[in-house]
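Hi R.,

As promised, here are both runs. First protein below:
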Amino acid sequence: MDITVASRTDVGRVRTNNEDSYFADAALGLFMVCDGMGGHSAGEVASRASMEAIRDEIRNATKVREKFLQTGKSSDLKAVRRALEAAVHTACKEVFKLASKNPELAGMGTTCTVVLIAGHNKGILAHVGDSRLFVMRGGQVHQLSDDHTYVNELVKRGALTREQAKNHPQGNVLSRALGVQPNVSVDTMIFDIDPGDTYLLCSDGLYNYYPDSSELMGGMSDANIEQGMNRLIDCALERGGHDNTTAVVFRMGGSITPATAAVAAEQRIAILKRIPFFAHLTYNELVKVVGLTHMVRVPTGQPFIKEGETGDELYVVLAGEVEILKGSAVIVTLKAGAHIGEMALVDNAPRSATVRAKSDVNLLVMRREEFFSIIRSEPAVATKLLWSFVQVLSGRLRDTNEALQSTRRELTQQSEELEVFLDET
């Protein structure tokens, strides 16, 4: 994809030094914002050292990136994600080493929010701290990163509401930062990219002045992204400018057409949201799920599930129609939005029916391996998915019990009628 990018940092109206660093290289497909912290010039050192270490590591990761570009395989995409995560860990060690050698830099650290465009309409986020990544698509702005702050941890545990968190006195206390310790836990996320998507990476010196993220729409939607970015930063400065303010904005070329709308990331997210299994997930969590799936196209008449065979895939129909067959008899026809085979995510039982394409169909596919990877790595998502799964199974058990009771009543009635008939004869 063609990428248009704009970037800028401003010291703000209160501080005398700028502890933010940023990097934006459309050719490399790498974009990042780092917001340093520490006494004297330590914050500047931490953010710059982190940015340079990640940049160099990604420049050296050409083989793993080229392999994914050639194959498009999910296993090779995961290798790219591991390379990005390793680059952030390298940066963490580098910042910690610098702080250990110089007493004036002791305790320094930095936030780090990085996006790497992997290819095949896939992007990868690596994130530590409270800088943020936003995406504008479908006329809405969504936050894709998750703040690593003390207050946000309280919100996730249910100890605070979102409203209470907005004015909390410890709102800027980080729960994670890069370089304070030699190692840090890094959030990574694979996400799908649509043509026309606009992404904003920024430090808290920008988004703190936009308490409602929908306000970012004005700048992110500008046809001239540099002009829009400058408007966002200038407005933050006018509203106080108490911190360094940094933004990197990039927009993916092209636009969604009627021919591609059915398989666009936004459409896939909307379809998943309508499935009971995923109904309780937030937009950010749905992005994580969709990022672990892949799409396949099945021609008319071809089966993709066969009765009696085992499988580990959940299928979601994005476009077209499919038929479910028991033996050679068609039981039902399903249209776009339908899902088939969710039980295969948790067991190895043989498929109970055959499913074939009635017309050319586009399918979203999630394998058991991907399902369990998100269960292991995302406790909040795991809780919601497993709870939804219990609800689905409970509903099916209830329906089965009702069907059995109905059958029992019919049999009882038939037995009574037979007894009356025999008595009369």
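And here is the second one, sequence first, then its structure tokens:
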Amino acid sequence: MNFNDLGHFNEDVMKVTNFSPPKRGAVIQLTKKEAVQLAKHWGIFPKF
């Protein structure tokens, strides 16, 4: 898997608008291929 460093909130592409800084875990986007690889690793078999 490859991840791109997006930087920090309020810098470059990650702009915070209409809410205070996050207080919990982040949400990331995955490609279908990445999701399948993670599902296989953790032994789950979701329907896409």
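A quick note on the second one: The helical segments are 32-42. Let me know what you think.

Best,
J.
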